[in-house]
Amino acid sequence: MEAAIRDEGICRFCLKTFSGRSMARHLASCKVKKQKNAEEITDKTKADVIYLIRLFSYKPYWLHIEIKSTATLHDLDKFLRAIWLECCGHLSAFTIGGIRYEASSPGYDYWGGKPQSVNVRLKKLLGVKDKFQYEYDFGSTTHVEGQVYAERFGILKDKIRILARNIPPVFLCVDCEAEATDICMECEEFYCEKCLAKHECEEEMALPVVNSPRMGVCGYAGTDDFDRFVPGKPHP
């Protein structure tokens, strides 16, 4: 059981709230962000093309990020694992323009074609409006969709910066309708801490409620937010 899901997030620059889709338009025009971008260009010789990318995976999980065009698919793979997915070191893969790029590839993919390496720069594969798909764990797979929706010329301190993230959905306990803290993998129901203690399934079948499309899958228990981004707090 879940409360009404708000498809909204908070811009980390101006702290205003927007829907997942309108966030892209806002970030392209946010005055606070533009000012921050201008302040960061202290040496134009070090500036480069930066992609703005929207990532989404099942309603209502989404992220808006900036990433250097010189970063690799491997860098993006590490980011997605860190903030949304990593539980047991599963394999992962991107699909771009019908070509598969696999992390830690053991050889050939399911269709008989040899997948490409993820050690390739984004600017060689993607441009504005280009879309891509990502899979984590080829057994209990979590799917992510992505699109480059804009680019700018500037400087990033790190390879990736989070611009906005969905507000965590609130799930309700199936027994008492209090805010749930855990999900039972056996019966696929949500429970608060008190009701979970009385639940008939084994305790090890419970996983915590987290702000991730991987919630309740495999052994995923959440990870530290990449670069400690918390929705509602301004960019340092």
Structure description:
This protein is of the alpha+beta class. It folds into 2 domains: 8-168, Structural Genomics Hypothetical 15.5 Kd Protein In mrcA-pckA Intergenic Region, Chain A, CATH 3.10.290; 171-214. The protein has 4 helices and 12 strands, in the order ββααββαβββββββαβ. It has helices at residues 22-29, 31-40, 73-85, 193-198, and strands spanning 8-10, 17-19, 48-56, 62-68, 92-96, 99-103, 131-136, 142-154, 160-165, 182-184, 189-191, 206-208. The protein is globular.
Task: Name some characteristics of this structure.
Structural Genomics Hypothetical 15.5 Kd Protein In mrcA-pckA Intergenic Region, Chain A, 236 residues, globular, seven-stranded antiparallel β-sheet, alpha+beta
The fraction of residues assigned to DSSP E strands is 25-35%
Count of extended strands: 12
- Report the radius of gyration as a whole number of Å: 19 Å
CATH class value of the largest domain: Alpha Beta
Strand pairing plus helix content: what structural class? alpha+beta
As for the CATH topology of the largest domain, it is: Structural Genomics Hypothetical 15.5 Kd Protein In mrcA-pckA Intergenic Region, Chain A
* Beginning-to-end CA distance, first to last residue: 36 Å
CATH superfamily of the largest domain: MM3350-like
Mean pLDDT score: 86
CATH architecture of the largest domain: Roll
Estimate nothing, just give the exact number of structural domains: 2
- Order of helical and strand elements: EEHHEEHEEEEEEEHE
